[in-house]
Amino acid sequence: MTDRVLAIDGGNSKTAVALVDVEGRVLARVLGPGASPQNVGLERSLEVFDGLVREAARQAGLGAGESIAAHTAAYLAGADLPREEDELRAAVEARGWSATSVVGNDTFALLRAGTADGIGVAVVCGAGINCVAVAPDGRTHRFPALGRISGDWGGGGHIGSEALWLAARAEDGRGEPTALLDAVTAHYGTATVAEAVQRLHFEEVEFDPHALCPLLFEVAAGGDAVARSVVDRLVEEVVLLAHVSLSRLELLGEPVDVVLGGGVLTGTGGVVVDAVAARLGAVAPAARVRVVDVPPVVGAALLGLDVVGARPGAESKLRAAYEAVAAEVVAGR
């Protein structure tokens, strides 16, 4: 039996795999494409994961027949319901990477990455939006996070679509004037939004709503009231997710962490984060709002180490390793 943990953070846009030992040493790190089962199907998803896992094993110097890890901690986008978690866990176990496995939603990895004990609330806003919460006694609260059919509002694709929707209505008179109109036409290189819409309709250009999301934040930062209303709505939604979760777990008055992550939240500086902290403070004054400072795969690895029993100092060693990587990336820019 090996003392290694295999950690997988499977997001919509990228997949991160780490192989760590109980001392907190990182034996291998591998990045690959997003492979959410909801987007590419279960079989293709596991093919991508398996390729990355085998590469991690190779990097760590493991032989072809050698056991990769004692435990696999896979936290995946698309593992939104217990049925999906069960199916994914069975598929992961069938790969034979380790003796035991846990599969959960990737937002739990974000929560563990942003806290010392995995207790509190995590809200992620990247391709989509989701929230999970864990109480000190182990109770959890989560949302289905299946998009608009389960009541969700937010995510990069949703916000980008709003930018196009608002620009189209501003041009044809159904909406309020907004600088989004000029920003959208510049993005598509067209004279009008109507021309851009036609090109999208005939699939002459690819519709990538995620690419329009940063554009909306830029226009909002310039003082545009229409774009700003979308940013305000996102802040409202993040606060609402956290508030409901804290309330359901009876933690509104407790000093717990509220961890924010995902490209949409972390990529906007203090525009969203500061507003969330201010509004949430009115209903949960003891809550500590923070932005995660290490990748969620660190949280997946820590959840795995919690299971197998990490050695003292393992968590700080693991975090330091990824903080050093982040510093190298910044220095290299």
UniProtKB/TrEMBL annotation:
Database matches in SUPFAM superfamilies: Actin-like ATPase domain
Ranges of residues in domain ATPase BadF/BadG/BcrA/BcrD type: 8-304
Record carries keyword Transmembrane helix: no
A GO term for molecular function: kinase activity
Sorted UniProt keywords: Kinase, Transferase
Protein name as annotated: N-acetylglucosamine kinase-like BadF-type ATPase
UniProt source species: Saccharothrix carnea
